[in-house]
Each structure stands twice: as C-alpha cells, then as structure tokens.
TrEMBL record:
Residues 30-321 form the Peptidase M14 domain. It comes from Hydrogenophaga electricum. Gene3D superfamilies: Zn peptidases. This is Peptidase. Belongs to the peptidase M14 family. The lineage of its organism: Bacteria, Pseudomonadati, Pseudomonadota, Betaproteobacteria, Burkholderiales. InterPro entries: DUF2817, Peptidase_M14.
Amino acid sequence: MPTPFADPIGTPGQPWGPAEIARWRARQVRQRSHADDVLAPLARLPAPFDAFRYGELVVGDDRYPLMAVRVGTWQPGLPGVLVTGGVHGYETSGVRGALHVLDQHAEAWAGRVNLLVVPCVSPWGYERIQRWNADAVDPNRAFREPSPAPEAAALMRLVAPWRGQFSAHIDLHETTDTDESEFRPALAARDGQPFVPGSIPDGFYLVDDAANPQPAFQQAIIEAVAQVTHIAPADARGEIIGSPAVAPGVIRYPFTALGLCAGLTGARYTTTTEVYPDSPRTTPEQCVAAQAAAVQAVLGFVVADRLRQPGEAAGAAQAPT
C-alpha cells in the first residue's frame, strides 16, 4: 500500500482559490513529450488511417493539437465504435493501449465497424503525468454542459453531431498507487475536505453504466482480458473501490450524472477500463495488452451483435469531419 501524504498547498478545511491553483500548477513539471509519444506515431500511420485534428488545447505558451483517427472508409449502416485514452493524462496504458490498437489491430476492422480512436484526450496532463488539467479540474468529471475542462469540451464537440449513433464506447483508464498517495489527498485539499484513506484494487476491472447496465457486454471484455492479466477481486465487503461488485471485476457508476467520458456518446454499449500497473503480478506491457484486448473484445461484441440484431445494432454512424 502507498503511504498517503498531506498535500502542502492551501489551508486545511478551506477549498482552494485561484492562488492555490496557481501554486499547484507551478509545481507541475513536464516529464514526457506528447509530440514524441503520440503525435509522431499518428503521423506514421498509413492508409486507410485518417488522423485529423479536432481541436487545440492552449495552456499558457503551450499549444497541443487534439488528434483523432478514423479507420477506413466510414459507411452508413455499420456500428460506430469510439475508443478514448488519456482522459486522465497520467494513466499511461490508456494512451499506449489506444496507439497499440491503431498499430496492430484496427485495420482488420475496417469495413466491419466505423472506428474512431482518440488516443490522448488530455495532453497537458499526459506530459506532466497528472490526473487533473492545468486548472486543477478532473476531465473525467467534466463531460457535461457547460464543461469546466477544455479537453472534455473539445471531445464533446467532436462527438456531438453523432451522439447516439455510436454502438459502443470504451474509455481506457488505470488505477495506480498514486491515486491513493497523491491524487486523492490533493483532491481532499483542493475541496477543503479531510482525506480518508482507501485501497487500490489489485487487477483489472470495469465500470459499467448504472443507468444502462449491459452485463453480457462487460462479461465479454472480462473474459478476453483474463487471458492477458488478472481480474481484480472484490474486497471482504464485496466491493471494488467502495462500489459493490455486480459481477467478477465489474462495478457500476452513473456515467452521465458524474460527467464521465464513457457517457458522452449515448451508445448502447459503454465501459471504462481500469488496470493496475503497480501490481507485482503484472507489467506495463501486460497492462497495454490488457487495454488492447478489451478494445478487441468490444469490437468483436458489436460486430456479433449487429449480426444478431441487424435492424437494431447497426446504427447510422457517419464519418466525423
């Protein structure tokens, strides 16, 4: 277990104001390159991939192109699938998993699904290995109108014309030891609340939508990922991170009510992945492979679902512009 620390910014019991947020932002140091790690691989993608800019994130003197990738020719009548990574910039396997899918698997699905991949939603956070954006806002609580996070707002604008026309959306995340040692203490300090220690699940798990549960869909992903890495068990209370486990490795959150990324499309099938890269039972490579296996399971599920229910699951997803 990580050892929590008291966040040194602010006054205990008082929420942060602009001065505290500015102090926090000044402490964030660039540790890796979005241009090298994300933009360069996207620039190398061959046809039939179409990498395009859907917006720009500006933070001070830093400007980040926000990139998405279409795979193949988008065809009316095929199920649309959205894959997002890096909503929380520090969750590395989500970004690497999305890029791995593009590099190794996506082309095989051209002509069977309309696939849209957004590998890194939060590039400022990615470079600083940070959960929040530059305004100390959690992007994965900001998918609502009006959004307090420009990263979330840009993705919402991209998806808005086709909201409800996607069959599935998988949002790739991690739960790390720093959730407990750094980010949750910082959250408590930011909001002027006491920090209550919790625990980190050891293994992969999924978050289903409490307002639209799809147990067969979640189970298909769990079965695929179990071939790659271990599934997080429930604790003694039958919970994972404080939520009841409704099936092995599956909990539920209300996506739209919480402003979660996985709720932005209105898709029938939605999920948020969580891997645990700090587990002694896995490696960073296995975590990336687990994310890729989850995406592959989603794609296989929606294709099979379309064959079972051609009049219902095909949708009318069109090509973003």
